[in-house]
């Protein structure tokens, strides 16, 4: 594996490039991918963004969204592009398992793999790496990548808008501990380059349907369980809940944070009965390692305070399993 700067000479002539990101892309996954897409287009490359799955409507405003190829809708075309690519950029994830079947195609391709990521424990499939677990967002690292390539002057409204959206979403609107003075300087640069900060916030956070708001109300009123003895809060949602409220991709995003916002709650989880499995999101405050619980018990991982995982048990069994592991963490949760 080589440092990211050694890719500079390779990018000096036009290349076939695929950019991909993690399953169920979030704001940072799409922001970093499309930000990099606009930059590489400007440099004269032939570039395609391929996502492993669809993604929420509140990310569809991003410039370049119309060109994104969703793998599950276009498997043959995706495979063809990856097979003939010189370079595959992998953004906002660091293990090929995270992108399902697309991961097998990427692994089999002769293309050089470039990883730009901020999650812990990279798997090691990459040939070039820009990785920093202290970075707030992959979009922050894409900014750094453009800077390292000596192209800061190329930042334009398209690049800046995408990267701004990625940083805004992964930093919880600039409130997480990962937000540094340097990040604010980067953000200032993005605004100067044309990112319309107020408009981007509105497009991402203030465009929900009435149903989504009522669904949030339902989750908080009827589905939230609080366990003060473990300083833990839990929301579990059945298939019926999802059907009753017509919950689509992205509609459940962020709900777990409301559970965590309760005073004295240190650990929050949402468990959702998706068709294929129970999908879980974990959030924690301070020292409590949400990713450890995700990794040890729920086939997942992530960051210290924000992690995800899954379970192939039923929803009820998953909740029981979760409750049964809390005593193990009681001390950590209540210090
Ligand atoms: P979310 O709860 O928003 O889906 O994910 C929170 C964080 O955990 C993200 O940084 C995401 O990359 C990570 N994450 C979510 N699901 C999984 C998973 O199944 N495996 C791993 N390793 N990380 C996950
Ligand atoms: Mn990210």
Describe the structure.
The chain is α/β, with parallel strands linked by helices and 335 residues long. The chain has two domains: 204 residues, inorganic pyrophosphatase (n-terminal core) (Alpha-Beta Complex); 125 residues, Diaminopimelate Epimerase, Chain A, domain 1 (Roll), CATH 3.10.310.30. It has a seven-stranded parallel beta sheet, with helices on both faces. Strands 8-9-10-11-13-12 form a six-stranded mixed beta sheet. α4 runs antiparallel to α5 and α5 packs across α7. The radius of gyration is 20 Å and the shape is globular. Bound molecules: guanosine-5'-monophosphate (5GP) and manganese (II) ion (MN). Manganese (II) ion (MN) binds next to loops. The site of manganese (II) ion has 6 residues, from loops. This is Phosphoesterase RecJ domain-containing protein. One of its GO terms (molecular function) is nucleic acid binding. Pfam families: DHH, DHHA1. It comes from Solitalea koreensis. InterPro entries: DDH_dom (IPR001667), DHH_sf (IPR038763), DHHA1_dom (IPR003156), Oligoribo/pAp-PDE_c-di-AMP_PDE (IPR051319).
Overall pLDDT score: 96
Q: Figure out the total of helices.
A: 12
Assembly form of the protein: single chain
**Element-by-element helix/strand order:** EEHEEHEHEEHHHHHEEHHEEHEEH
Number of strands: 13
Strands ordered across the widest β-sheet:
1-7-6-5-2-3-4
Low-confidence stretches: none
Distance between the termini: 42 Å
Helix content: 40-55%
Domain DDH: 16-167
InterPro entries: DDH_dom, DHH_sf, DHHA1_dom, Oligoribo/pAp-PDE_c-di-AMP_PDE
Protein name: Phosphoesterase RecJ domain-containing protein
Domain DHHA1: 245-323
């Amino acid at each position: 594996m080589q440092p990211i700067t050694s890719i500079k000479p390779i990018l000096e002539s036009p290349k076939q490039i695929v950019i991909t990101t993690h399953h169920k892309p979030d704001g940072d996954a799409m922001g970093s991918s499309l930000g990099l897409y606009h930059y590489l287009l400007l440099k004269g490359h032939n570039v395609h963004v391929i996502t492993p799955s669809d993604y929420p409507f509140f990310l569809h405003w991003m410039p370049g969204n119309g060109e994104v190829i969703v793998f599950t809708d276009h498997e043959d075309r995706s495979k063809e592009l990856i097979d003939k690519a010189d370079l595959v950029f992998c953004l906002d994830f660091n293990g090929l398992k995270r992108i399902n079947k697309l991961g097998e195609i990427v692994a089999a391709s002769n293309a050089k793999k470039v990883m730009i990521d901020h999650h812990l424990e990279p798997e090691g499939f990459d040939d070039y790496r820009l990785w920093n677990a202290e970075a707030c967002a992959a979009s922050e690292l894409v900014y750094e990548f453009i800077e390292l390539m000596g192209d800061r002057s190329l930042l334009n409204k398209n690049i800046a808008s995408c990267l701004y959206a990625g940083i805004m979403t992964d930093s919880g609107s600039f409130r997480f501990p990962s937000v540094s003075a340097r990040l604010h300087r980067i953000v200032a640069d993005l605004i100067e380059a044309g990112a319309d900060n107020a408009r981007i916030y509105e497009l991402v956070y203030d465009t929900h349907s009435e149903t989504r708001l009522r669904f949030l109300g339902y989750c908080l009123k009827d589905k939230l369980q609080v366990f003060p003895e473990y300083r833990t809060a839990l929301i579990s949602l059945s298939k019926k809940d999802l059907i009753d409220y017509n919950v689509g991709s992205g509609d459940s995003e962020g709900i777990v944070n409301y559970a965590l916002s309760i005073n004295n709650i240190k650990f929050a989880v949402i468990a959702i009965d998706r068709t294929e499995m129970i999908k879980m999101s974990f959030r924690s405050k301070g020292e409590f390692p949400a990713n450890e619980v995700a990794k040890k018990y729920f086939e997942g991982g992530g960051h210290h305070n924000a992690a995800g995982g899954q379970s192939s048990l039923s929803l009820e069994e998953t909740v029981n399993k979760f409750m049964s592991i809390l005593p193990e963490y009681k001390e950590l949760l209540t210090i």
